[in-house]
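User: For my dataset I need records formatted as: sequence, then structure tokens, nothing else. Please produce one.
Assistant:
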Amino acid sequence: MILEDGTLRLTNISKSDEGSYTCVARNHFGASSSTGSLVVKEPTRIIVPPLSSDASVGQSLVLPCEVSSDSSLSPVFKWFFNGKAIDFSRQEHFEMIGGVRTCLW
């Protein structure tokens, strides 16, 4: 859809929309053009979420957080405990383990 100001609006973008887009504006005094490229990335999704668990005092627990994401991106994981970010460098109680991001409690 082309808006009144000449802006191109794309909706429901897919991989097939990836490529170069050129805007050309013309009038009786001449023409001008500009080109830009669109790269479409797959969204990051949690495919194995941490689940609610029960544990006994003194026990260890592993909470998974497996994601799928665009192969050109490296997801960054951040864990929160009761709404506050866990600082793994200052909390020996928590540990980030594994290639699939999990948290050991």
